[in-house]
Amino acid sequence: MLDRLRADLEGLRRDGFEKTEVPLNSPQGSHVVLGTKIGADIINMCANNYLGLANHPAILAAAKDAIDRFGFGMASVRFICGTNGLQLDLETRLSNYLKTEGTILYSSCFDANTGLFETLLDERDAIVSDALNHASIIDGIRLSKAKRFRFAHNDMAALEAMLDRAAGARTILIVTDGVFSMDGTIANLPAICALAERSKALVMVDDSHAVGFVGPGGRGTPALYEIADKIDIVSGTLGKALGGASGGYISGRREVVDWLRQASRPYLFSNALMPAICAASICAIDMAETASDLRQNLSRRVMQLRTGLSELGLEVGGIDHPIVPIITGDAQAAKDLAVHLFMNDILATPFAYPIVPKGAARVRLQVSASHSERDIERVVSSFASYIGVGKHSPTH
Ligand SMILES: Cc1ncc(COP(=O)(O)O)c(C=O)c1O
Questions:
Q1: For every residue of 86-150, which 3-state class applies, written as one string?
Q2: Fewer CB in 10 Å around end: N or C, the chain?
Q3: Of 95, 181, 251, 370, which one is the catalytic site residue?
Q4: Distance 235 CA to ligand 1 centre (A)
Q5: Which residues of the chain are in CATH 3.40.640.10 domains?
Q6: What is the mean pLDDT of each run of 10 residues along the chain (396 residues)?
Q7: CATH fold of 20-51+292-389
Q8: pTM, whole model, 2 decimals?
């Protein structure tokens, strides 16, 4: 096996698909210091730090205060002796924020998604899932014995056809990301809910790339479309806009949450979230709900970047969202573009197959509320210089 792994690793390196990790020598932020480029002030365009809260003084104070009061770790799963009042407070706060009947915390949203489907559904049921759903949803669905139907990304005719094929199942669950992380596209939730109603299906949305900043009060894609009451289950993360530490949740119908607490394996057999994360996440939700200036700044910078890049003639994916993919098609072109940005002290990640479909390589930029107008100007002008000097055009 070791020989095989060495050969596989060599193959990845040779084909340019090896993922390398850049150590940050500063707190997470719109500007960072890298261990590999000492002394440079790098504009960070690839964190999920949408509201810029990862190193916000109020979040740090809430975490420090919780450590002083409740210590560091819980050293237990929730149902043995790992439940602290702050976890219960955070679950209630998330339910109030998302206007749901109940919420259950997990160590991550990946865990939440892998602990969801197998706990609720078996071979008598059917799951109808968007083809571009996140890896954690795909893996979670694989763990369940339910029949699986996949529809082409955001294609409502394809969803309708799959719902027809799933007819007769005891429970049909439609599963979609709220915002698709590689594309910045938003699920057509109104159409999905209308089709769900017709087929008596339930709807589950993973809103990891929306909660905190999309929709009124940052309540996510269901709130954006004013259909929160029609969504049965929402999953989400504490690891992106809401402070960016770690942790995830399932929020939704009371019976679903109560049953997950009894039977969901990643919840039952994994350590409880540390109280400091819970306190800081409550603080982040308070800020996300009330700090409309953060959301306004975010949407101004998003518009500035999208407009600037489009005016350069680049193919910019998604609509209005801080995930801004520049589709190069060719993997080498995406790499060349990211290297050029890096030479200009801008950090952005190139993505190629198998993370995105073959021929759809891209550089994904992510805007934060803490980016300044000048930061975005620098990013746009770096793209302009790439087009001027690059041998590969980043458009198709
Ligand atoms: C849509 C989506 N769901 C789930 C996750 C996993 O979240 P977490 O980091 O909390 O495990 C991610 C993170 O990449 C994501 O983008």
A1: HHHHHHHHHHHHHCCCEEEEECCHHHHHHCCHHHHCCCCCEEEEECCCCHHHHHHHHHCCCEEEE
A2: N
A3: 181
A4: 9
A5: 57-290
A6: 97 85 94 90 97 98 98 98 98 98 98 98 98 96 98 97 98 98 96 98 98 97 97 98 98 98 98 98 96 94 97 91 95 93 96 88 97 98 84 45
A7: Aspartate Aminotransferase, domain 1 (3.90.1150)
A8: 0.95
